[in-house]
Write a structure and sequence with these properties.
By secondary structure, the chain is of the alpha/beta class. The chain has 8 helices and 8 strands, in the order ααβαβαβαβαβααβββ. The protein has one domain: Rossmann fold. Helix content is 35%, strand content 22%. The protein has an 8-stranded mixed sheet with strand order 3-2-1-4-5-8-6-7. α3 links the parallel β1 and β2. It is globular. It comes from hydrothermal vent metagenome. Its EC number is 2.1.1.222, 2.1.1.64.
């Protein structure tokens, strides 16, 4: 079976609706679907990264919507889309912060894993095996979108971001995280994580699909988004923890974007 013929567990409704979906990427993550919640499995790096991603998302969303981050359930009343939700590593903690979460993923196996774990945890999360384009076509809208470690895996970035623009309410915002295309990101995310430490299966990332912050800002601008904030995420090998950084965007970074007014 050639790469283009690789079987996935996702059958797109139409070429237009699923323009951003890369079947090979869906197949790759579907093959690991049962391991999403194993902190020592293939998604160990995301488990390590998750507290930093959640803290950033919570703080910028509270700031954007005028909420107090110190209270219980500060995101209550907000409808948030976790696009490319995988097994729900972000959806669950954001649900615990009070948000109404819709988790969407192109992999049916990922969605089944997410649904089973949410039920086990007693969480009410609406998980759907659907693409951003299909949600936009259905007329769905959200106060905020979580677009975390997804954009480097999509096939058509303009189509994907245009769909996100349609899905977002006028006063809403989108939180993104991705990988910079630098020598350091190749050394850490590919050589280190995939080949030396073997935290991730080989082929999880394609360095050529990583986006420099300037490239992501341009792609967002072309899809009528303004970039309002950017933070780097830095890994500390001795502690195994991550932290936010105002200047170091060499590997992982986060961005807050919102719709360009009157666009």
């Amino acid at each position: 079976m050639t790469k283009k013929q690789k079987k996935t567990d996702f059958a797109p409704d139409s070429e237009n609706v699923s323009a951003s979906v890369d079947p090979d990427e869906v197949a790759h993550f579907s093959a690991m679907a049962a391991t999403w919640w194993d902190p020592n499995g293939p998604f160990k790096p995301l488990h390590k990264l998750n507290p930093t991603r959640i803290a950033y998302a919570k703080n910028v969303l509270c700031r954007h919507f005028g909420r107090d981050p110190k209270i219980n359930f500060p995101l209550k009343g907000l409808r948030i889309l976790d696009i490319g939700c995988g097994g729900g590593l972000l959806s669950e903690p954001m649900s615990r912060l009070g948000a109404t979460i819709v988790g969407a993923d192109a992999s049916e196996k990922n969605i089944k894993t997410a649904q089973a774990h949410a039920a086990e945890m007693g969480l009410d999360i609406d998980y759907q095996n659907i693409t951003a384009e299909a949600l936009a076509k259905a007329g769905e809208t959200f106060d905020a979108i979580l677009n975390m470690e997804v954009i480097e895996h999509v096939a058509d970035i303009p189509s994907f971001l245009n769909a996100c623009h349609s899905l977002l309410k006028d006063e809403g915002c989108m939180v993104l995280s991705t990988l910079n295309r630098t020598a350091k990101s190749w050394a850490m995310a590919i050589a280190g994580a995939e080949y030396i430490m073997r935290w991730l299966p080989k082929g999880t990332h394609d360095w050529h699909k990583f986006l420099k912050p300037s490239e992501l800002a341009r792609a967002l601008r072309n899809s009528r988004f303004d970039t309002n904030d950017i933070k780097g995420m830095v890994y500390h090998p001795l502690s195994g923890q991550w932290s936010l950084d105002d200047k170091d965007f060499a590997v992982n970074y986060l961005v807050l974007a919102q719709k360009t007014p009157n666009a």
